[in-house]
Amino acid sequence: MSNIFPPASDQWRNRYLLMRHGHSQANQQGLIISSPERGLVDYGLSSRGREQLDSLLTDWRWAAPARILHSDFRRTTETAERIAQHFGLRLEPETRLRERHFGAFEGEGDDCYAEVWARDALDPAHRHAGVEAVAEVAARMREVIDQLEQRHAGDTFLLVSHGDPLQILLTALEGRELSRHRERVALAPASITVLGSPL
């Protein structure tokens, strides 16, 4: 799989709000929680994460989303639920927006990310210790955007996902080498990055 994806067109048919979930219990405990077995049922939002979303919704400054697609992990689902309730929308789980799977590092301390990211910089196709390859994450994340672009026009979509997948997606959309995804400024919990036409 390619290390470089063609850059996305500057002419977006839709607007995309790419959101990292709010601060989670996994963030609070400093743990890597990337497997569906754990991530779907446990490690939802922390109290800090719920406060972040309250603040975000009080001061919402983006276009109102027409649809919300989200990773089905608990922390992303809880994030999406709060926004869906605010705008009166239904939730649409999307497994392609899931966390990157970190293989044997599952359940380990988040200081282990550094080892994976160092390997990413050398080879974005690596699957060391069962880690999902950067190129595979880019492909599934990009596929979500590409399908929405093919099927819709003039809509605003909120996509709720995780830090690593979103950084990888943004790198792919820019047409940059995927090995450089950690050169981007890290996305903060509950942050929103806008793709598409301005408000």
From TrEMBL:
EC numbers on record: 5.4.2.12
Q: GO terms for molecular function, please?
A: phosphoglycerate mutase activity
Keywords in UniProt for this one?
Isomerase
Entry annotated with the keyword Isomerase:
yes
Q: One Pfam annotation, family name?
A: His_Phos_1
Q: Gene3D superfamilies, from UniProt?
A: Phosphoglycerate mutase-like (3.40.50.1240)
Broadest EC class?
Answer: isomerase
Task: Work out whether the entry's keyword set contains Isomerase.
Answer: yes
Its protein name is Putative phosphoglycerate mutase
Organism lineage string: Bacteria, Pseudomonadati, Pseudomonadota, Gammaproteobacteria, Oceanospirillales
